[in-house]
Amino acid sequence: MFKGSAKNEKGADFNPANLNIINAGTNITGDIVSNGDIRIDGNLIGTITSKSKMVLGQTGNVEGDINAQNADISGIVKGNIYVGELLTLKASCKVYGDVVTKKIIIESGAEFNGRCHMKSDKNEAIASTKDARSSNGQAGKPAEKINVLQ
């Protein structure tokens, strides 16, 4: 089914064995940590950490934080999103939480309810997010960040 060697968008070899897929109709409670790409079309209550690309499909729902190098969001996120490079919020997405990223694309129709912190240094952005929340007296503590994207 996946014979041969395909190339990803950067020209590197793409290995389908490194792709993780959570299909629609699948419900997971717990944290996911992956070195490869991950696509979620089902439901997750927990944190996602990927050293590569994370894709949340239109039928996907995440209640928890997303930590990835790159991310495309088409579904619903109730949590914070930390992206080392490029975050794309597709027209069908609904995001309820703060975003920390280096670059962002927000398509027309996307719903984004939160704050966006644009920084060149990811660690600096995470620190400023935590400082902003603690200084404005907002209820609740900021989510703990698993920093795998250095």
Layout of helices and strands:
Blueprint: E1 6-7, E2 13-14, E3 20-22, E4 27-29, E5 32-34, E6 38-40, E7 43-45, E8 48-56, E9 61-63, E10 66-73, E11 76-78, E12 81-89, E13 94-96, E14 99-106, E15 111-113, E16 116-118, H1 122-135
Parallel strand pairs: 3-6, 4-7, 5-8, 6-8, 7-9, 8-10, 9-11, 10-12, 11-13, 12-14, 13-15, 14-16
Antiparallel strand pairs: 1-2
Quick overview of this protein structure:
This protein is mostly beta strands. Helices cover 9% and strands 45% of the residues.
| SS content category | mainly beta
How many individual β-strands? 16
**Poorly predicted ranges (pLDDT <50, ≥5 residues)?**
1-7, 132-144
N to C succession of SSEs: EEEEEEEEEEEEEEEEH
**What overall geometry do the principal axes of the alpha carbons give?**
globular
Strand content: over 45%
Roughly how much helix do the residues carry, as a percent range? under 10%
Q: Averaging pLDDT over every residue, what do you get?
A: 81
Q: Number of helix segments?
A: 1
Largest sheet: 8 strands, parallel
The Rg value, from CA coordinates, equals 15 Å
Key attributes of the depicted protein:
mainly beta, 9% helix, 16 strands, 150 residues, 1 helix, eight-stranded parallel sheet, disordered N terminus, six-stranded parallel sheet
